[in-house]
Specification:
Strands 1-2 form a two-stranded antiparallel ribbon. Helix 1 packs antiparallel against helix 4, helix 3 packs parallel to helix 5 and helix 4 packs antiparallel against helix 5. The chain contains five helices and two strands, in the order E-E-H-H-H-H-H. It starts with 11 loop residues before the first strand and ends in an 11-residue tail after the last helix. The model has no long low-confidence stretch (mean pLDDT 91). The protein is mainly alpha-helical and 180 residues long. It has a single domain, classed as Cobalamin adenosyltransferase-like (Hypothetical Protein Ta1238, Chain: A, Up-down Bundle), CATH 1.20.1200. One of its GO terms (molecular function) is corrinoid adenosyltransferase activity.
Length: 180
């Protein structure tokens, strides 16, 4: 199988059920999810092999689900089977609740950062928010899997708490926002 096909040289790309412009909102939405997946891979690479095994496993599952989310959004045909479902959103909520028990209660907003890994997870959080915004636009413009929107919303919360947990485990204090 060749890496290049030349079929997109005219600015169109193939989706399940048809071809669209490469700047179509559907392509923008699943492309941002693909970008997020790369940032998640980067965060995993920043993990020491002997630390955060639970988080590494969860992030790897999320990477697979991000591929599923992109595939869900890439469908323009009427006959659809979606991979991202409400149970995946619930599972994210359970993980968030589990990791939150390791953290002190929030008193103020915190600045993104701390350890390099926590900073990488904060980048995942903001890219997830952008993917969610693109998906909101897509769901308002047409028929697609609305569970992807819910999943991305919860996923950004997951990345936030994961960044806090990484800092707690490294004994690095979150830096609280101090209004100027």
């Amino acid at each position: 199988m060749k890496i290049y096909t030349r079929t997109g040289d005219e600015g169109k790309t193939a989706l399940v059920g048809g071809r669209v412009s490469k700047d179509d909102i559907r392509v923008e939405a699943y492309g941002t999810i693909d970008e997020l997946n790369a940032f998640v891979g980067n965060a995993i690479c920043k993990m020491a092999m002997d630390k955060h095994n639970d988080l590494r496993q969860h992030l790897t599952e999320i990477q697979h689900e991000l591929f599923d989310a992109g595939a869900d959004l890439a469908q323009v045909s009427k006959k659809r089977t979606y991979q991202i479902t409400a149970d995946k959103v619930t599972r994210l909520e359970n993980w968030i609740d589990q990791y939150d028990t390791e953290c002190a209660p929030l008193q103020r907003f915190i600045l993104p950062g701390g350890t390099a890994l926590a900073a990488a997870l904060h980048i995942c959080r903001v890219v997830a928010r952008r993917a969610e915004r693109r998906t909101v636009t897509l769901t308002e413009a047409g028929d697609t899997n609305v569970e992807v929107r819910r999943y991305l919303n919860r996923l950004s919360d997951f990345f936030f708490i994961a960044a806090r947990v990484v800092n707690v485990r490294a004994r690095v204090q979150d830096i609280e926002y101090d209004r100027s």
